[in-house]
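Q: Got a minute? One more chain.
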Amino acid sequence: MTFEAALRATEIMMALALIQHSAEHLAGPRSERPLFAVRIALCALVALGLWTQWALLGLFLVGITILHRFQGPYNGGSDRMGLLILTCLLLAHFAPTPVLRETAFGYLGVQLVLSYFISGQVKIVNPEWRSGRALQDVFRFSAYPVSGEMRRLADRPRLLWTMSWAVMLFEVIFPLLLVQRELLIGGLILAVLFHLSNACFFGLNRFFWIWISAYPSILWLQARLLGAL
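A: Always. Here it is, folded:
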């Protein structure tokens, strides 16, 4: 994947993800609607490739305004990832040299790898995750599961132990997938399925769309690194 193709794919996917995030607010408090309507309009420009760098700058300013309005990233990790992607795209457009443009975009790929690795590292040193108890508590007590059927999984400790270790091992070995193209593509497919299951089971749909928006950056980064060897 070329730099320009990866950059453009990321722009389109991020724009569509942010449109989805913003559309929810059009049915919210009236005071919030103009801000998110402007965000949707700017995302549409980015998706269509019209005045892209200025639309990205506008989105960045709107993003800062949203942070101030809600006293931080109110939706947690998905909002942080969205702002990270937006910032890297903005720098990639306004950087004065090709090297700096690639560095800005490559930083997004590095952060994506770290997002999985650090998440796995945090889990694997936690005895509750190693025993499967953490997932049991999620299904038994969390407000996330969407049905009583999901909560019954808390009564299957062996299954949850297996699931816990599958998630932890996948996340901690994620950086190793960079050594081969096929491994990375397979790993990203598994990651998509992981995020999709979280969206279906727990309603974490924002994580699904915004995380996969960053995948072109890691595909480009791998090709760049392997090409330099």
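A: Residues 98-124 form the longest helix (27 residues).
Q: Perfect, thanks.
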